[in-house]
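check this one:
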Amino acid sequence: MTVMAERTFQMSVEEFETIASAAPETVTLEFINGRIGVKKVTDGDHNTIVTWLTKRCMQFRPDLDLYTGQGLRVETYREGRAKPDAVITPEAHFAGYGEWADPSGVLMAVEVTSYDSDTDRRDRHEKPAAYGQSGIPLYLLIDRDSCTLTVHSSPDRKVGGYRDIRTAKFGEKVLLPDPIGIELDTEILKNYVR
């Protein structure tokens, strides 16, 4: 007989939302896997990468919107709260939503790694599990540590994560499959790493 360890939570999602709503703008808080996390303040290179992606989306898919700072309810029963670096949706998708929106309709979540100790756990493990379980079709990880882009597709809603994971080095052309359907020339990203 296998005994499963019960997952312990630091606090309820309601307690987290109260704390997050009172946090200063210089701090971004998330609640994933039952634990509160702090996202490091972004640097100029991080923001430049998000701006680069925004321009590519505007150029090739003007019918889509790229949001930064939009919180999402993620994980089983929507008990997690994540603030991706960017999310891509149909035009005006989040109109009328509050700080934490349902991820239904999100086409792709994007994270750009920060140079902090939580990046591995948060961006490479917890976020793909949460986004996949939430049914977000694509997760794009722009990893400045390894100079790679990883495209996660075919979400697995039962166990979380994605069934198809493809990684390319900065400098290669990367196809973002449907529902985004654009190709990115990533050569310029080599300029935005330490």
